[in-house]
Design brief:
Helices cover 45% and strands 13% of the residues. The chain is α/β, with parallel strands linked by helices and 373 residues long. Strands 1-2-6-5-4-3-7-8-9 form a 9-stranded mixed β-sheet, with helices on both faces. The chain has a 3-stranded antiparallel β-sheet with strand order 10-12-11. The longest helix has 16 residues.
Length: 373
């Protein structure tokens, strides 16, 4: 029997009702969409049709009597400025995430949904990192954000937070994927950081409003972190940690995995060493990452005719660095010539050249010469 409820005519309300279905993983929800084509049709279907689509038990009971009160809360959230619902049928749904085995049927976003289609690198790690680990995560995020990559993580304390801070301080977009409802921040101490993320990037969740931060949510969250990214960098992780789950998801999704080595006496380095033994790429500097994900970034960004030639990662550079890079080709050029051509003060030029070299965009040669990489 078709249920008599005017709300089933509202596609947006039905998308939220779909996300609230208990005992339904993302794969089952996507299968339901393939059968019924639209979420509205699912909630208009009779019991026999729902059973025929594979629903039983609590899942079937839910679709016969959805949580419309919860949906009303979701709709009120969506009515606030800067909030978005991006469904898997939306052309703005991230292409790289659509390609994983179990993509979320919809994403709830606070901030700039366009950031989800940027070329992203995930940086994850321990919630209790060493001081060195915190600095490494921050510096990788800062430097890679400066040259155009979007840094993605999980807003947890520790490595995640320092990665987000590095991107924010570099004035680049960063994406934080939540393991709880989109209307709250977990942990609460990261509320200010979350607000900073929203300014230029996005908070993302597949969980609607009011969902608590349950332990079972975080492996699901981790597959989105890796699924949005062309590669995952692990900075300090114990042998059993959520970061290794993220790395495993990345491998299953065909993405690159990088690990930062540490002291053999540091328990939070053991997970990274395990990844390295399993074939992860050792990451000591930006170049270790860029030489692997350049071709992947080009493919992810949809560069026409790309066959691994790499993407132009110079878009995030400041004006001084861009001017210098534009005047450095594949033949050596002396720093004095660059200063003369660009009319830049020597100190500023030298500093910018150093940053370009750290970013892996140029290489210094003996005698004060530089060449594009």
């Amino acid at each position: 029997m078709v249920r008599e409820d005017s709300r089933v005519d509202d596609d947006v309300a039905c998308w939220f009702a779909l996300l609230r279905a208990p005992a339904c993983n993302s794969t089952l929800l996507v299968q339901l969409l393939e059968v019924f084509r639209r979420p509205t049709a699912i909630f208009e279907a009779d019991e026999q049709s729902l059973r025929g689509a594979g629903l039983a038990g609590p899942a079937l009971e839910y679709f016969l009597s959805p949580d419309w009160a919860g949906v009303e809360r979701d709709l009120r959230w969506l009515g606030q400025p800067g909030t978005h619902l991006i469904t898997i049928s939306d052309p703005g749904y991230p292409l790289v995430l659509r390609q994983i085995a179990d993509p979320p049927p919809a994403l709830l976003v606070r901030g700039h949904p366009s950031a989800l289609n940027n070329v992203q690198l995930a940086i994850v790690g321990s919630r209790n990192p060493s001081p060195a680990g915190r600095r490494i995560a921050y510096q990788f995020a800062f430097d890679l954000s400066t040259i155009g990559l979007t840094i993605t993580s999980g807003l947890a304390v520790g490595i995640d937070s320092h990665a987000h801070h590095g991107a924010v301080d570099a004035k680049g977009p960063t994406v934080a994927v939540l393991g709880n409802g989109i209307d709250s921040v977990y942990p609460k101490q990261n509320q200010r950081l979350a607000d900073a993320v929203v300014e230029s990037g996005a908070l993302v969740s597949e969980f609607p409003t009011g969902y608590p931060a349950l332990a079972a949510n975080f492996p699901r969250r981790n597959r989105i972190i890796s699924g949005l990214s062309v590669g995952t960098l692990v900075v300090e992780a114990a042998r059993r940690s959520g970061s290794l789950i993220t790395a495993r998801h990345a491998l299953e999704q065909g993405r690159e995995v990088f690990a930062v080595p540490g002291s053999i006496r540091n328990p939070t380095a053991q997970g990274c060493h395990e990844l390295l033994r399993q074939g992860a790429k050792l990451a000591e500097c930006n170049e270790d990452i860029l030489e692997e994900i350049g071709p992947l970034a080009a493919v992810a960004a949809g560069v026409p005719g790309s066959s691994g030639a790499g993407i132009d990662l110079s878009e995030g550079l400041d004006g001084t660095s861009k001017v210098l890079l534009d005047n450095i080709g594949y033949e050596p050029v002396h720093i004095d010539s660059l200063i003369e051509i660009t009319d830049l003060p020597a100190g500023i030029a030298a500093s910018a050249l150093s940053s370009l070299e750290i970013a892996g965009l140029i290489e210094s040669l003996p005698g004060g010469n530089f060449i594009r990489r």
